[in-house]
Amino acid sequence: MSRSYEELEAEAASVSVEGWDFSWLDGRATEQRPSWGYQQQMGARMARASAALDIQTGGGEVLAGVPTLPRLIVATESWPPNVAKATRLLHPRGVVVVADSDEPPLPFADEAFDLVVSRHPVTTWWPEISRVLQPGGTYFSQQVGPASVFELVEYFLGPLPAEVHRKRHPDDARVEAEAAGLEIIDLRLERLRTEFFDIGAVIYFLRKVIWMVPGFTVDQYRPRLRALHERLQRDGPFVATTTRFLVEARKPS
């Protein structure tokens, strides 16, 4: 028997959205993963590094899964609940978690790290990354690409202008990285399938990934949510396209 809209809304609106763990969506949504395996590749680089920085670590879940960490490692995060969660998770691994505003400047000296990583940063401050990297050091990042999950975003906001669809394009990352004095080693984009099976998954996702529909609240969008609930029950999963790109850049020796 299918669950009512009211049940699904109440459940998804009350669950915690701390951290960057999406396991609550298991069985309710699926997201195809990029082929490159970011965490594994990042872990291999961490094992070779001597001093590393993880920018916008979220709740620290990705970094905590790395088998071998360098002797000196720092993570930054801006959202207070995530700072607390990352501290609990990462301190036992010897990682210092720094509360940071995610605005320049990074709170570190010039040439402090030989490896800087970041998974899904909201903004990439390329001049700051270049500043804190040692000569020969590497920046390694998986980022959200252009128009990611825009089928869902535009369901709530309506059609968005072409220039908004173009934002977060990897070609722009190349230009900005090179302008900051970095050399691009690897740059890859993939388009991936995402499915939402019930309205609870949609509500949870939009509460957690707050920049998708800025200012999203259940109260504000309840008519659209109810209509989408009925569509999901009638037609099956809501399908969207996720975009991800991998970028690796080096500071010249």
From TrEMBL:
Annotated signal peptide: none
Residue stretches in coiled coil: none
All copies of domain Methyltransferase type, residue ranges: 53-140
The entry's keywords: Methyltransferase, Transferase
InterPro entries (UniProt xref): 23S_rRNA_MeTrnsfrase_RlmA (IPR052939), Methyltransf_11 (IPR013216), SAM-dependent_MTases_sf (IPR029063)
GO biological process: methylation
Family annotation (Pfam families): Methyltransf_11
Keyword check for Transferase: yes
Listed GO MF terms: S-adenosylmethionine-dependent methyltransferase activity
Protein name: Methyltransferase domain-containing protein
Record organism: Myxococcus fulvus
